[in-house]
Amino acid sequence: MHLIFNKLYSFSQHISNPARTVLKSRQCNVLVPLQHYCSKPSSSSSSSGTSNAGADGEKKPPTLQDLKKKSFKWNMPITWRSLLITAAFGAVALAVMFNVKKKKEILREKENQRALGKAKIGGKFDLIDQNGNALHSDTLLGQWLIVYFGFTHCPDICPDELEKLAQVVDLIDGDKSLENIQPVFITVDPLRDTVAAVKAYVAEFHPKFIGLTGSVERIAEACKAYRVYFSAGPKDEDNDYIVDHTIIMYLVNPEGNFVDYYGQTKTAKEITNSIMISMAKYNLAK
Questions:
Q1: Which sequence ranges form a coiled-coil region, renumbered to this chain (predicted)?
Q2: Which residues are documented as binding site for Cu cation?
Q3: C-beta separation of 185 from 150 below 8 A
């Protein structure tokens, strides 16, 4: 009877005080009083730095006031020295980039010039000079050439063009900062223009002239390489004739490649200025 009385007393206490109702945890078979979940955090726990913790033990997100309290510092302070070092490295990088770009452009221009010379105008020749010596075009490499095709019996055009060419040579030679230029005369009338005739003819215009003649076949090859047109006209009663031909001066660089050409309308000064520009471009591309 005493045991039954105690059980009834305990049951009546649970009913009268709901806060002591127990819950069974899913994680373990431990009876936890409901009061544990409903109780407020004690003053001692809030003062220990757990104000951001919720009633269930999870942390609350930081407030704006909490973020303002935090101070952020740079790992490396910014100084004038660090700025100058950074600027120096940037300047060096830009200089290297522009230098590489410039070299690529120069090489591209040089290749374009080579392709132009090989594809269109210019080439090798093997002829005889005004002294009777065999002369191959390769022996003239290493210097600038200005080449003119004509014939010694030409009444007016060839003399005028050769005089203009001589003026160009004098203007180039007068500027010591410029490279040497070699004038070359190639006949388009090999049947009449012998070695002696060519020698006497070129001597009338400039002492630097190289005069070239040769067989009909070799002259035709040289004219074909430079795209020079020539055609002998009908003979008169004195067995004389005029040769119709291209009236152009050809500029050739030290590598033997065609660079530019100058027609009859160009003045000596204009030709000289063009040659100076071509020389500067060539030297820049080396």
A1: none
A2: 154, 158, 245
A3: yes
